[in-house]
């Protein structure tokens, strides 16, 4: 199965987006005549693997390399760098050029910036005195379709850059990406944003619409009806909790990168010592599509049922006489055998993690913190984790969860835990703590927390969750309903107005705007309920809501959204846009300062 | 009948009709073409007139100074200017495709004028040789010129847009050519200019690379005059013995040959369309020669200028502008005397219809089957007509016929009306761009509009572009720029109002471009006011910078949310202003400030420190120093030996000192202090143990390492130095002892005193090390029966676990434990059974 997802079932024509990106890339490569060495920044290479098969690139006379500090080894005279516009990569390139010059190598250099050239990068090239030797271009890749309902802007550091450095470049990128979507699918008439960054994105988006209007008269009805923007800052509780859906757990323990996990081949039952294999995880795998969003407990049951029924079929097959069509059905079922085996292997591997007492204790503690009823127990648990020098990231996840739900810690505790952290993990983490404090994730308490009010008002903690037959999104965390998705649930159903009071308790402003040429024809509350005829597109398709998470989204949240969209009485298909798929681990990691 | 009178004005040349309507009576006064050099632009363009200084003429009551005058093709004066250029006689004068007047004087200087007779700087020279040798002849085409010097050298400007002269190959002939023509680059195989020069008794082809002699049946003896057809395919040659020949441009075959009565070459030789050639001597009638049949003569008693067009020739005399063209087929079919073509009958039917005659119906019945083509012919003929009332009649005939056609493209008439309205509008004598419909199609509407705006007919251009559905941006933009140039006396505010009033007509127009023009005209304030209205920040910001509005640029860039634009402004100001001023500008502006800090953090540490110092953010400087100390530590030179630890500690102490300056940073201050102290101690430990394993590990790790190495005194010392709490100390020591599996020491440690956090660390350490026996030593000592129960459970002692749980009187716990046991057992076997179920024989 290919890593590039099949997008045929997407509610939007994402395939055309991807094909455009393919064409753009191929054009760049074709326009540079002759053989060339293509140097790709590794992370970007990962994203590109969702756009085009690297084997296809080789047809254009290309030798592929990954960007690193080492000089490029190639016999070709043309070196083409394909890199994101990041300052820190410039020193690699300028050192490559300098090293080539000192070796007397004469090469032609091209840099294609993704998604656009930026003056801060070029400035560094100028200061390094290599700018004039390089031909500079752009590869406008703003969006990568991860799956039929997920778009990623591939901005790994967006949250940290916004919150800590005050660098809002990623917000411009997001707005641009949405604006580009609008030029293909029409101006989105309803926009609802919550959180500072979300509102900024809306502002920039509106600005772009005035500066370079999308010609809405070309399109009869915009394909996307509503855009909901949620700033990650609004809900930092959810990503810090351990995800309990199948896909979420896979990401927590094995890390899903660009729609696949890499693990030892022995786990997948392939006996090749020490070899890693890549397992693609996307909706092209029918079984995965069925179980990815389920609570892991249920996944085990589903797999068991499937295996049992197959065994039964097999027994019948060998004991009784079958008609040809029955045989055919059986063979068809056998075709799903590789998928079954794959997921049974993965599930077993996961259960080695989930059955550990430490994991269960951690879940327990997360719930205790989210319940926010026993401060001291939580405090002591975290203190002990630090003293036992447990993995710093795990400590910080709980600590952030703790600090956010309490809107900070009293000064005494704050300073005490900080000191314990520095003593246990080293003073270099002063920078990490400083970053977390700037981002408001681990800070001194300045006002009373309103988490309890929010929790109660939005019914974030749901008792007696039936994970097998869920009736609420809380199933994804076995009892905790992710705040972000609760907000989306309300926003889709009735807009912000009925819940203004609660929104005010959460960080950042919220806005609700009407745009484009459709303002006059639709009433403000047209989105309410499924009954409104205007929401239905004439050809019977359901209208579409684009939910954008500024700062990243977890798989568990995506599962919760899919659950919402599958509910009866839900008139919308949801499509998700995110700066990056994150989990607590990867998000906390971005706050670590790298030295040197 | 009316039809007869139309055809009565035609002349027949072999089987083709020609007509020569007068387009305009010339409105100029006292212009005698014979006294002047005249340059007429094709496509009904303007006429430049200047007194010919190569002729001796009598001056009447006029100044001795020559005047260059530019007229519209109806003789309306557009502009004039006094000619006082040095450089000798004016040799060549011609209009380019974009209606620039090119004037070349003897010394090879090229002067350029626009239609407003304004000199376009800079003047260009054809080069040193031209300057020394004098230019004697110029041959122009739409976009270039070839000049001949007295010395027989050929120079060429292949593209007036680039104005880069080059020399063509030398002919090597002693005599100057009798005549020359140019084959335009777009018609040559090589894509370069080719000159055909009649030298001696043959023709040479000259281009940049070489010279070839032309062979062909048409070339027999000296050639006196040549002209190339407008499509570059044919050549007309006037020979020494008075014959006119037409040949293919490659000299293959003779298509026409006619013996003129004069052996003197004609003064002007011109193609009329592609069908015939005109010859003009100033004392005989104008002669038109076609491929067959007797030539035609046109009588004029005035000097003439022939202006070749794609579908005919305009004939300019002192008093009129005529257009000689072959009568279009559709017109012939309608108006030819005695024509019974369907179109003629349709036209006739309309006439009857207007007179309420029943014959109209009869006519229509006659042509029923071919009605669509009749309608089409009427429409086409209307297009070719210059007379408005005849256009109208023809269109009415078409419309009348259309009413009886079921399947005719209805918009044809509408389209033709549209086109004719445009053509009639520009044919107005004041505008005087007289285009035939074919010329209009060749020229394209956008070029026509460009010409109109160049001639400052903005309103008409605007109306036309609106009418034909083209973008009006070009027109409005040009208008705005011209308005600014022309309105030096209008104050900024009122001019702005005038401009905005029009600019708003066009959505998406670039205010920045207009502002840039204002700035170029020295109206910086107006530019600033205009750029304020530019919606696209990416255009607005660079312009603001270029007009020195740095503050505004910074604000606009920040508002746009485009960080790249903010950086653009930042780098600009950074380069231009002294640091303190730069700091002052960004300090109070969060986004620019943060972006600057973020950039400088990567690449300009020292400069960033200056910034923080100037803004009093000492703690930030301290953090920077602290970070530097780490970078120093990463330096590979520092890992071996320790001389670099000194500087590191110094940096940290500097940071510590800076933290002490502010009250809010006592925590950081203490941390820095401890860090410095830790490094010192670690350094000492490395010296004592002779192992480089301490530096840069944490305090806890240092304690563990000490214990693992068996150096309990050192561990104790670190503990007291850093006031490590008893709790942490117990965890660290227990884990360290478990790491080296020193179970006796662990037991001894447990008995030192009652552990401050109970025996849980001991139990955990033993269980983690998989030493059930050791764990059992401590489990009973756990105070809380629940903890005991869970500990037993973890080492698989279900009964003891249950006992402890029941002791705790905690039913919930008991239940959970049972469940865990059951689940664990189930879980472990579950997957085995799953796989068993799937492993069919023969299938895997």
Descriptive notes:
The complex is a heterodimer of chains A (596) and B (844). Chain A is α/β, with parallel strands linked by helices. Chain A has 4 domains: 14-141, Sec1/Munc18 (SM) protein, domain 1 (Rossmann fold); 146-236 and 468-587, Sec1/Munc18 (SM) protein, domain 2 (Rossmann fold), CATH 3.40.50; 246-354, Syntaxin Binding Protein 1, Chain A, domain 2; 373-448, Alpha Horseshoe (Serine Threonine Protein Phosphatase 5, Tetratricopeptide repeat), CATH 1.25.40.850. In chain A, 47% of the residues lie in helices and 13% in strands. In chain A, the strands form 3 sheets. In chain A, strands 6-7-14-13-9-8-12 form a 7-stranded mixed beta sheet, with helices on both faces. Chain A has a 5-stranded parallel beta sheet with strand order 2-1-3-4-5. Chain A has a two-stranded antiparallel sheet with strand order 10-11. In chain A, helix 5 links the parallel strand 4 (108-114) and strand 5 (134-138). The longest helix of chain A has 24 residues, at 296-319. The radius of gyration of chain A is 25 Å and the shape is globular. Among the domains of chain B are: 1-19 and 215-327, Lipocalin, CATH 2.40.128; 785-835. In chain B, strands 1, 2, 3, 28, 29 and 30 form a 6-stranded antiparallel beta sheet that branches. In chain B, strand 22 and strand 23 form a beta hairpin. In chain B, helix 4 crosses helix 6, helix 12 (473-486) runs parallel beside helix 14 (511-520) and helix 28 packs antiparallel against helix 29. The longest helix of chain B has 28 residues, at 811-838. The chains are: A alpha/beta (596), B alpha+beta (844).
Topology:
The complex is a heterodimer of chains A (596) and B (844).
Chain A: H1 14-31, E1 36-40, H2 42-48, H3 54-57, E2 62-66, E3 78-84, H4 87-102, E4 108-114, H5 119-127, E5 134-138, E6 144-147, E7 150-152, H6 158-165, H7 169-185, E8 190-194, H8 196-211, E9 224-231, H9 237-240, H10 246-254, E10 260-264, E11 276-280, H11 286-291, H12 296-319, H13 324-335, H14 337-354, H15 357-371, H16 375-387, H17 392-405, H18 411-425, H19 429-438, H20 451-457, H21 483-494, H22 500-505, E12 510-514, E13 543-550, H23 555-566, E14 572-578, H24 584-589
Parallel strand pairs in A: 1-2, 1-3, 3-4, 4-5, 7-14, 8-9, 9-13, 13-14
Antiparallel strand pairs in A: 6-7, 8-12, 10-11
Helix pairs in contact in A: 4-5, 7-8, 10-14, 12-13, 12-14, 15-17, 16-17, 21-23
Chain B: H1 2-8, E1 11-13, E2 16-19, E3 22-25, E4 36-40, E5 47-51, E6 66-71, E7 77-83, E8 90-95, E9 101-105, E10 109-113, E11 119-125, H2 128-133, E12 135-141, E13 144-149, E14 154-157, E15 166-167, E16 179-183, E17 194-199, E18 202-206, E19 211-213, E20 223-228, E21 234-239, E22 243-248, E23 254-259, E24 268-272, E25 276-280, E26 286-289, E27 296-298, E28 304-309, E29 312-317, E30 320-326, H3 329-335, H4 342-354, H5 359-367, H6 371-384, H7 388-402, H8 411-427, H9 437-443, H10 445-454, H11 458-467, H12 473-486, H13 492-503, H14 511-520, H15 524-531, H16 537-546, H17 550-560, H18 563-576, H19 579-587, H20 590-603, H21 605-614, H22 618-634, H23 636-639, H24 645-659, H25 666-689, H26 699-708, H27 712-721, H28 726-739, H29 743-752, H30 760-768, H31 772-778, H32 785-794, H33 798-807, H34 811-838
Antiparallel strand pairs in B: 1-2, 2-30, 3-30, 4-5, 5-6, 6-7, 8-9, 9-10, 10-11, 12-13, 13-14, 14-15, 16-17, 17-18, 18-19, 20-21, 21-22, 22-23, 24-25, 25-26, 26-27, 28-29, 29-30
Subcellular location (chain B): Vacuole membrane
Main location (chain B): membrane
Domain Vps16 C-terminal (chain B): 509-822
